[in-house]
Amino acid sequence: MTLYLFYFLSFLAILSALMVVFSKNPVHSVLYLIITFFCIFGHYLLMNAQFVAFVHIIVYAGAIMVLFLYVLMLLNLNSESEPHKNNTLKFVAVISGCLLMVVLVAALRGTDTMMLQDNGSKIGYVRNLGKVMLTDFLLPFEITSILLLAAMVGAVMIGKKSSKTTTPQ
Amino acid sequence: MKIPVEYYLWLSLALFCIGVLGVLFRRNAIIVFMCIELMLNAVNVLLVAFSTYLNDASGQVFVFFIMAVAAAEVAVGLAILVKMHENTKTVDIDILNRLKW
Q1: Cβ B4–A129 below 8 Å, yes or no?
Q2: What value does the mean pLDDT take over residues A8-27?
Q3: Is the CB of residue B43 less than 8 Å away from at least one CB of chain A?
Q4: Given an 8 Å threshold on Cβ–Cβ distance, is B52 in contact with A123?
Q5: How far apart are CA B18 and CA B37, in angstroms?
Q6: Cβ contacts of A67 on chain B, cutoff 8 Å
Q7: Cα end-to-end distance, chain B, whole Å
Q8: Does B88 reach chain A within 8 Å, measured CB to CB?
Q9: Is the per-residue pLDDT at A115 higher than 60?
Q10: Residues 6+ apart with CB under 8 A from B46
Q11: Which residues 76-115 of chain A have a CB within 8 Å of chain B?
């Protein structure tokens, strides 16, 4: 049962990831990417990683994809204004993507199968993960907050009106 | 019934390669950004899989940090793209090539 669920979620994730790349309309790409993210959410739940699963949904589907959709609609991009590479470049892109896949598969195919213990592991729960995050990883956790603050200030600085019309400081 | 960890390896490999393909295939800079997000997510899936299977919480903490970095990257990147679109009226990466060389 779990295995069938895994196959279904993987199939849907890969299919919608391909549709992100190949759909003509950028808004459709965003919507397919949201489907991919929900499939990955299902995978996280299958792996019993609840904290990561819900943070993933909140951050990606809730914040990042809304930002993408907002920018696409703000810039008024649709399938007519969509630029396209010429066919040679598209062919080369597909070939090199497939080659990368072949190389990685060949590199990883012969690895030993990891026979791991059946784990009713509870490390993905908020209680355990929070304990690790606020003891072992306290400094990176705080630096992350500084990073987010810097990103916010940077986005506001870049996004505001250019200072040509206003007096320079 | 547990899923072998190799299956997650192949899944994240496929997602990563699709992300690379998208970066090479598309000319719209916003779609290129989205494909970078796809690659980051492929890595996240693999990190969570190994962390669960090896019973080590560090991997999931790293996934949390990767999400924070991705959010910061998208916020700044989209702000830059909006300003570029204001000036040049396009998000085509073949036209936005002034920083090349």
Answers
A1: no
A2: 93
A3: no
A4: yes
A5: 11
A6: 74-75, 78
A7: 54
A8: no
A9: no
A10: B8, B9, B12
A11: 77, 82-85, 90, 92-94, 96-98, 100-101, 104-105, 108, 111, 113-114
Do the chains contact at A104 and B17, CB–CB below 8 Å?
yes
Q: What sign for the dihedral angle of Cα A57, A58, A62, A64? A: negative
Q: A97 pLDDT band (50/70/90 cuts)?
A: very high
Burial of A21 (0-12, 13-18, 19+ CB in 10 A): buried
Using CA atoms, how far apart are residues B80 and B93, in angstroms rounded to an integer? 13
Residue intervals in chain A for CATH 1.20.120.1200: 1-78
Q: Residues A38-71: pLDDT tens digits?
A: 999 999 998 888 999 999 999 998 899 999 999 9
Q: How many residues does chain B have?
A: 101
Q: Domain A1-78: give its CATH code.
A: 1.20.120.1200
Average model confidence (pLDDT) for chain B? 89
Q: Provide the shortest C-alpha distance from residue B99 to chain A (in Å).
A: 18
Structure token digits, residue B11: 């899944």
φ, ψ of residue B28 in degrees (nearest 5): -75, 125
Token pair listed for B52: 């669960």
A127 touches chain B (CB under 8 A): no
Residue type, A17: A
Of A3, A68, A100, the CB nearest to B30: A68
The 3-state DSSP class for residue A35 equals helix
